[in-house]
Amino acid sequence: METTSRCSPNDHQNDHLVIIGNGMASHRLIEGLVKQPTRPQRITVIGAEPTPAYNRILLSPLLAGEMQQDALTLRDTAWYAEQGVNLILGEKVETLDRASQTLTTNSGRSLDYDHLVIATGSRPALPDVPGIELEGVHGFRDLQDAEALEAIAQRGGDAVVIGGGLLGLEAAEGLRKRGNGINVSVLQRSERLMNRQLDTTAAHLLKDTLTQRGLNIITGAQLERLESDARGRVAKVHLADGLQLNASSVIVAAGITPNAELGRQAGLRTDRAIVVDEWLTTSDPAVSALGECCQFEGTTYGLVEPIWRQVEVLAATLCGTHTQGYADTPSATKLKISGVALYAFGPTEASAEHEVLNYHDLERGDYRRLLLRDGQIEGAVLYGDTSQGPWYFEQALAGTDLNAYRQALLFGGADVEVLREAASLHSPDSSELSSKQSSSKHSSHTTSEAA
């Protein structure tokens, strides 16, 4: 169903737009707004961190010592001033009064708004186990966390990372690379690493690679409790099967929790996050929510691609530009973990209705697995050489029937195109067309001679 923005051009051009949060989603929204002639003329951005927006995706190479902090900054403070954007850093919004359309920060600052965008992001999801509040337990979500982990790596000792997804593995590899005599263990609740993206074979390949580099990876790990020393610092991790691990520090990277408390406190409709419609509007027409703190049709968000689409819709809406509303669409996951490239989309497990095609080059460390249903690609996992991933995804979105080219599918688009061309040359339609073209050319030549 096609939907359009409910705002008319220039309806809100002179309004005061206040954005709570100065993360990647908020910054991309501002970048989109300032390019528009019908942008709100008064824009205020409030960030809880003391630094301007930065690229959180690059925290891992920062931790690993492969990048300087300045390289993460998206725009410096001067840019905001040049764009006529009022930037407030190091303050957290504590109260929101929707009736008077005002908010108050922890410094006592009070601001009024005509329209408000909540883009407060998320925080690490903490396991509900005894000892999780001990000193020495950290997350890995911001610059402060990266600085703390760097200090941990330099001190050495025993670090335990809870979570075998992308963020957990990057934190573990960063500690290992930056470490000074540090032992790093990774605990993954599932039986395989990155279980939402990888099948069993790819997960085993990744585990073998990371184990060879020096990480201790434990899958199927059920966390029971954290034990403290006499000073109240974390000292050990206990698993349900009785295994105990020494831990001078614990890093939690096992999912995220949306920062929706401000919306709940203000009486907005919330579930796991702040509920929004297709224009990112909350239950209050004067308030929008964006990114990891919002929930649309039961879905919450942690990947960049859908959030960027949300930004496009919200920027257009705030500028009074007609636009289609936001809708979830299939997306592929492209990752690189410490030099290992991965590409995946669709289901990770094959059903009884799937035809499974596999390719595994042990010498080069490349692996591909395709799931087909009635000749159409429904899922793919690529490990190592991921160059054909976008082509597979394109075919899946188009619903292309690839039954006739199954023998070439695992080798990618170029090989399939060769078969397609060969098939078109030998098809009955092609032969008939070739015959007609030959006859037409002969008749034309004869007529020319007679003239």
UniProtKB/TrEMBL annotation:
Low complexity bias (residue ranges): 424-451
Region called Disordered, residue ranges: 423-451
Entry keyword annotation includes rRNA processing: no
The organism's place on the tree of life at top rank: Bacteria
Domain FAD/NAD(P)-binding: start-end pairs: 16-294
Keyword terms of this UniProt record: FAD, Flavoprotein
Gene3D superfamilies: 3.30.390.30, FAD/NAD(P)-binding domain
Entries under InterPro entries matching the protein: FAD-bd_OxRdtase, FAD/NAD-bd_sf, FAD/NAD-binding_dom, FAD/NAD-linked_Rdtase_dimer_sf, Rubredoxin_C
This protein's record includes keyword Magnesium: no
Domain NADH-rubredoxin oxidoreductase C-terminal: 332-392
Cofactor(s) the record lists: FAD
UniProt record similarity statement: Belongs to the FAD-dependent oxidoreductase family.
Name this protein carries in UniProt: FAD-dependent oxidoreductase
Lineage, uppermost ranks: Bacteria, Pseudomonadati, Pseudomonadota, Gammaproteobacteria, Oceanospirillales
